[in-house]
Amino acid sequence: MLSPQHLATFSAIVSAGSISKAAMRLGCGKSVVSRQLAKLEADLGARLIQRTTRRLTLTEVGEAVLLEAQQIDRSLANVEQISGQFQQEVRGRLRVACPRPLGQRHLVPLLTEFTQRYPLVDITLLVEDRLSDLVAEQIDVAVRISHLEDSTLVARQLALTTRVLVASPAYLARAGTPTRPADLAQHNCLLYVQGHTVRDEWTFRQGGTTVVVHANGNLKINDGMSLAASASAGAGITIIDRTLVETELANGTLVELLPDYRLAEGPPVYAVYPARQWLALKTRTFVSFLEERLFK
What we know:
This protein is an alpha/beta fold. Helices cover 41% and strands 26% of the residues. The protein has helices at 4-16, 19-26, 30-44, 60-88, 100-117, 169-175, 224-232, 242-251, 281-293, and strands spanning 49-51, 56-58, 92-98, 121-127, 141-145, 154-160, 163-167, 189-194, 197-199, 201-206, 209-214, 219-221, 237-241, 255-256, 262-263, 268-273. A hairpin with a 2-residue loop joins strand 8 and strand 9. The protein is rod-shaped and about 105 Å long.
């Protein structure tokens, strides 16, 4: 296979008018340029340049090859220019994946702000409750709420999640307000279920004391947003990530209970992407934006 470097050297020789001038332009020795030209001619099986002590003259084959070599030069220059644009200006297509609750509550509003800052970015948001294959699905960034396993992916922690015990004012008016963890035994608890596992052990800490409550209730749900909606509708008391109910807590639809007790921390929130080296400016900028704005 012909070497693009040798073709570029041939084009430089013709442009400079001599092998020595081409060597100076390319920043290498004259012998290197001569060897590359000789190798190109050997690969083609044809002489490209008639060389005398005074001048270089293109052969008929040389003239035809020069046209193609110059086209390669232009293509390489265009590639460099394109790469430079994408590394100097935040632009291009950005594919982002995130879990449904986080996307609906937090990420979608932030995407509007990001695209206003960087109008040359075209975002595709994949909102789905599964672990996407970033490489196979050509995803630039995935936002994940979990304790990550070791992998070849790069992960940057964006935030820590906290959990909160909540109920609606209507439910509390009907069933009473618990003042200590033990009181939850008298309440209908809304439970999160994952597969066949029901998270019905609720742990509360106060000072050096730990209290574990076995929660019971008539409603088990495998989706955080639905759990928040059930609590807002007055179905019972639940433990949920604060990020999912910040709006309800602010407008009074839900009330935080037992605030003097500390619940177990939720999993961290990470931005995950396939590679650190040669990371595209659009990806790097988006991750930094999430670090700056998510949950702020």
